[in-house]
Amino acid sequence: MNSDTATLFLNPDRNLAMELVRATEAAAIRAVPFIGRGDKLAADGAAVDAMRTFLGTVNFDGVVVIGEGEKDHAPMLFNGEHVGNGNGPACDIAVDPIDGTSLTAAGRQNALSMIAVADRGSMLDASTVYYMSKIAAGSEGVGVIDIRKPIGDNIRALAKAKGKAVSDITVAVLDRPRHAQLIDDIRAAGAGTRLMLDGDVAGSINAAMYGTRIDLCAGIGGSPEGVVTACAMKALGGVIQTILHPVDDEQKQRGLDAGLKFDHVYDADELVKSENTYFVATGVTDGGLVKGVRRLGPVIRTESIILRSKSGTIRRVLADHQASKWLE
Ligand code: VTB
Q: Fewer Cβ atoms within 10 A, N terminus or C terminus of the chain?
C-alpha cells in the first residue's frame, strides 16, 4: 500500500460529492413535471432553482466557473456566483442542472443533472469558445489514443489495447451534421457508432467505465462539457483530449484575448489543474449511465453516480425520497 493510499484509508477525509448529490437529486426531481412537455426553458428553470437551493446547504465555498451563463443573462447559477454555505474548501464548480434540456422537453432518454467540483482556480475557463473537438476513453486508452490522429488509427490502437476486435469497438458520437464524415470514417474502420441526440459527458463516462457497450467517445461538443468530463475522467482513470473549435474568427479572437490556445491539445490536466475532482450526476430520464426519476407509490426514486478522483471510488446511489415532502 503506497503512502497516498495509506493516507486516504488511514485518514479518510469527507467526500464532498456525497453532499453535492443532494443538489442533483433535487434538480432531477424538480425537472420531472416538465418531461415531455415541450418547454426546455421551464424545465431548466425548475432544475436551476432546486439545485441552487440545495447547494446552499453544502459545506464549501464554491464559485461557479461553468454555469447558466453570464450574470446579465442568468438570474441564478451564473458564472462567478458564489454557492455553498461558505464553510469549507474553496472550489470551482461546474453546474448543469439539466444536461439535455431538449431531451427532457421531448421526453427522450439520457437527460442528466450534473455537477463537477475541483480546487479553486483549477478549471479551464473556455467560455469564450463554445465548442471543442474531443476524444475520450477508459484507462486502456491512456497513452494510446491521440486526438491528432485519424479516428481509424485511434480505433485500431484502442482495440489492440483492449484486446478486442475492431468490429467490437463502439464509438459514441453526437448525432449532428458536422459529424457526417466522422461517422463514415468510424464505420469505414470497421467499428460501430452509438449516435447520441445529446449528452457527450455521459457518452465519455460510459466509454471510461467498465461493463458498458461504449469504448470511445469522439466529436465536437461543448467546451464546458469538456471540462466537466475531465473531472470525471480523473476519477475514472480515463483519458480525454480536446482541441478548441471556434466557429468563426471573432470567437477565435475572443479566445486568444482570454489566453486560450488554438491548435493545442488540452488534456485532462489542462482542462482541470487539480487532482481533487468530484463528479456527480442524477438521472432525469432513463439513460445508459443512470436511470431517470421514478415514482413508486409514496416514494420518488432517484439514481445517481458519484465519482471522486482522490479515491477513484465509483458510487451508484439509489435514493427513495418521500413524495409527500416534495410535492405540493
Ligand atoms: C454539446 C454536448 C452537450 O449539447 O454541447 C451539445 O456537449 C450541443 O451541441 O452534452 P449542439 O450545439 O450541436 O446542439 C449537449 O448535448 C447537451 O447540452
A: C
Q: What is the pLDDT of residues 281-320, one digit of tens each?
A: 999 999 989 999 999 999 999 999 999 999 999 999 999 9
Span between the terminal Cα atoms of the chain, in Å: 52
Q: Cα of 72 to ligand 1 centre, how many Å?
A: 22
68 lines ligand 1 (CB under 6 A): no
**225 within ligand 1 shell (Cβ under 6 A):** yes
Question: If you take atom 13 of ligand 1, which residue's CA is the nearest one?
Answer: 176
Residues 228-257: tens digit of each pLDDT:
999 999 999 999 999 999 999 999 999 999
For a pocket test of ligand 1, which of 196, 200, 227, 244 has the largest count of ligand atoms closer than 8 A to its C-beta?
200
Mutating to test ligand 1, I would choose from 174, 178, 251 the residue with most ligand atoms within 8 A of its C-beta, which is 174
- List of long-range contacts for 16-19, beta carbons under 8 Å, 24+ apart: 16/58, 16/59, 16/60, 16/88, 16/89, 16/91, 16/117, 16/278, 17/117, 17/278, 17/279, 17/280, 17/306, 17/307, 17/308, 17/315, 18/306, 19/57, 19/58, 19/59, 19/60
- Across the range 75-88, mean pLDDT stands at 91
Task: Read off the pLDDT of residues 121-147 as tens digits, 9 standing for 90 and up.
Answer: 999 999 899 999 999 999 999 999 999
The number of angstroms, rounded, from the C-alpha of 171 to the middle of its chain's C-alpha atoms is 17
